[in-house]
Amino acid sequence: MTNEAPLLEVENLQVDFAIRKGLMQRTVGVVRAVSGVSFSIPRGTSFGLVGESGCGKTTVARAVLQLVEASAGTIRFDGEDIAGMDAPALQKFRSRVQAVFQDPFSSLNPRMSTGRILSEPLRVHRLKPDSEIKAEVARLLDICGLPARFADLYPHEMSGGQRQRVGIARALAMNPELIVCDEAVSALDVSIQAQIINLLEDLQKELGLTYLFIGHDLSVVRHICDQVGVMYLGRMAETAPSDPLFAKPRHPYTRALIDAVPNPDPDYEQGREIAPLEGEVPSPANPPSGCFFHPRCRLATERCRREVPVLDPVEPGHLAACWETGVTVPSG
Amino acid sequence: MTLLRVENLAIDVARDGGTCRLVHDAHFSVDRGETIAIVGESGSGKSLTALAVMDLLGEGLSVSGGRILFDDQDLTALSPRERNALRGSKVAMIFQEPMTSLNPVRSIEHQLTEGMRLKMKLSRKAARARALELLNEVGISDPVRRLKQYPHQLSGGMRQRVMIAIALSCEPDLILADEPTTALDVTIQAQILALTSRLCRDHGVGLVLITHNLGIVARYAQNVAVMYGGRVVERATARQLYRDPQHPYTRGLLASVPRLDLPRDTPLRPIPGAPPDPTVELPGCRFHPRCPKATDICARQVPEFSVTDGHEVACWNAAVDHTEGKGAVA
């Protein structure tokens, strides 16, 4: 950790999607996919966003990548507000921020060889003269653990793990500072997933990369990330460094998520009684009043039904949005 | 008494005028009220094995060896008509993706009562009454309204509950669940698995749980069969398998998963390489190209099984050391 400014700062991010209806596609309402989300990622560290489907974690990632427009709030990259960037600055920004997606089969062009997939960004952004491109492609493959002959292969000729390595190599081609990993290891088999996790960690160390890591597998996110944010229905429920967050969660939702994960240990698992979280995530088009989590929460009080809890520090660096956070959250 | 015993099952696929063996040797057994897990990665043959038990293998796939004994009756010797009578009534299956395995143009009532009317010869009224009971049992509120609805009107978790209700509808003795919660969020996964496991125990149903998730195995299964490259390579009780994994592949798997119950900086030790292409012939142990312990014999000869205390392992080098490797995962 250093004292310099964080590489990415997201402040009060809000993303609304219009609900359109009828022949004229008139806007009849909005879904607030992300509401007042703030976090920052120091350079060279990893920040994880977790939560169930529809919690808005991917929308946050897309807003950072400028693939959806923020309705309110600011996103600062290296100290500069990206909303205020002009076209040349934005292009610069786009090369400094890259993404790795979940399904490397649908995010790689099936008609392009690996060599072309990797050389295209180098040409478009004029990062290397034509004479050096071949060597650069080989270097990118090498740091991602693939032999140079893979430049001639097409996506369908590779396994899932190899495709994901190409996906990572493509992101690295731009020599980025921030990589947004959206469920980047979720579709892989267990033994391959571990290879890719280790690769991401090694690359981070060698190249000083910063990761925004979106995932639903808590044990993977905990392993990779220094800091984690737990989202529920578009809001940040809790955020803290990984160790305190998993050892001593202060939001009942975080507790429930952690309890739901079965550990690979039959002695422990078959002896423990868990009460799975009941019900399902409500529709973001029609969220509950007060704390969005209150209908499923065992600690909910009258106040939780009425007032939206504020994301407040419970300890330095550990924030939770819960009115009952002083109450010990019972496990299971 | 053993409810289901699969012995030396082999499955072939027709290919380029010849055949190619996808499953070489699957074997396991399950008792009434017991849960056994089949663990493996893509291409290990775990799903094909389940489909073979159901007699649902697709075009070009066929059982080419071994036996499937259900209640001491060899299913592979039965006529298609006899297999058909068992399917859905005595043996039911829960599939991974309830959106594609439920019929989108039929109401929940139709899909839930179809089996009961066909196999149990229930009247429309009796089937409907039982359907309401089943929906209650799987925790679906407002069952009267739900019966009229269609799959797209239900959430993923609710669709999977309907699948469970359908599986239970004809009071089966055996349920095969193929990655029943892989598409679901972790909290819904916990709900669905707790429900399935409780219902199977209460009704004395044998459950075969097919999964790649080692945590799920640890929580719900009493016995485990680990499959790799179309073979069962290790078979043991869940406790034996996690405490003392014998096959280098099993050890590799356990060392590959990040765990919430270990320190965050515990390094992952992945298995190098990738699973074998099932269509490419590979002599000897199919794990040998990735195995840290491989010796000459591994590349030549398929390993034989050795059994200690009911713990079965197919590895030439398993007996060589019983200590190294487990410290890292225990």
Automatic annotation (TrEMBL), chain A:
InterPro entries: AAA+_ATPase, ABC_transp_ATP-bind, ABC_transporter-like_ATP-bd, ABC_transporter-like_CS, Oligopep_ABC_C, P-loop_NTPase. The keyword Nucleotide-binding applies. It is a peripheral membrane protein. It is found in: Cell inner membrane. GO terms for molecular function: ATP binding. Keywords: ATP-binding, Nucleotide-binding, Transport. CDD domains: ABC_NikE_OppD_transporters (cd03257). Pfam families: ABC_tran (PF00005), oligo_HPY (PF08352). Gene3D superfamilies: P-loop containing nucleotide triphosphate hydrolases. The keyword S-adenosyl-L-methionine does not apply. Residues 19-258 form the ABC transporter domain. It comes from the Bacteria. SMART domains: AAA. Its main location: membrane. Belongs to the ABC transporter superfamily. This is ABC transporter ATP-binding protein.
Automatic annotation (TrEMBL), chain B:
Gene3D superfamilies: P-loop containing nucleotide triphosphate hydrolases. Belongs to the ABC transporter superfamily. GO terms for molecular function: ATP binding. It is found in: Cell inner membrane. Residues 4-254 form the ABC transporter domain. It comes from the Bacteria. Its main location: membrane. It comes from Thalassovita aquimarina. Pfam families: ABC_tran, oligo_HPY. This is ABC transporter ATP-binding protein. It is a peripheral membrane protein. Transmembrane segments: none annotated. Keywords: ATP-binding, Cell membrane, Membrane, Nucleotide-binding, Transport. PANTHER family: DIPEPTIDE TRANSPORT ATP-BINDING PROTEIN DPPD (PTHR43297:SF2), OLIGOPEPTIDE TRANSPORT ATP-BINDING PROTEIN APPD (PTHR43297). InterPro entries: AAA+_ATPase, ABC_Ni/Peptide_Import, ABC_transporter-like_ATP-bd, ABC_transporter-like_CS, Oligopep_ABC_C, P-loop_NTPase.
